[in-house]
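In full, the data.
>
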Amino acid sequence: MRHGKKINHLGRTSAHRKAMLANMACSLIEHKRINTTVAKAKALKQYVEPLITKAKTENNQTAEKGMHNRRIVFSSLRNKHAITELFSTVAEKVGDRPGGYTRIIKLGNRLGDNADMAMIELVDFNELYNAGETKKKSTRRSRRSGGAKKAEAPAPAAAPAAPEATETKTDDSEE
């Protein structure tokens, strides 16, 4: 029985697994997306997201605490170039995100051994998925006193929307 065993060992010794995850994390930080198997992608997600959180919180703290976080992340990754990239570019992009920095997209099966393949990528660096989205205000809505203000706000916005709707209907009639 596997009660309480949360780590997927990936068929490797602990030293090999740690080295492999560190190398994959450095590649993910450098290239922003990598292709691998689904099991390795899930293990990498658990490995790299706490490191990104440490890099993100470094920018909001003093220099001493920032250096401490850099050294903690360096003990896991062991690559100076990946640390520099993580604490500069990646930390700026994910600064306002409360978690969920990576995305796993399943790609199908590999031809040689029929292994499930996946692409793992950093969410904020994919321009195709983020093109239509706009930055939202991170405020919480309350149940009271919000209805009266919202009812007044859409009324002026609805007037310019009506001619656009008629234009789309004329476009449909031309087809």
User: Anything to note?
Assistant: The CA atoms of residues 22 and 76 lie 7 Å apart. The mean pLDDT is 83.
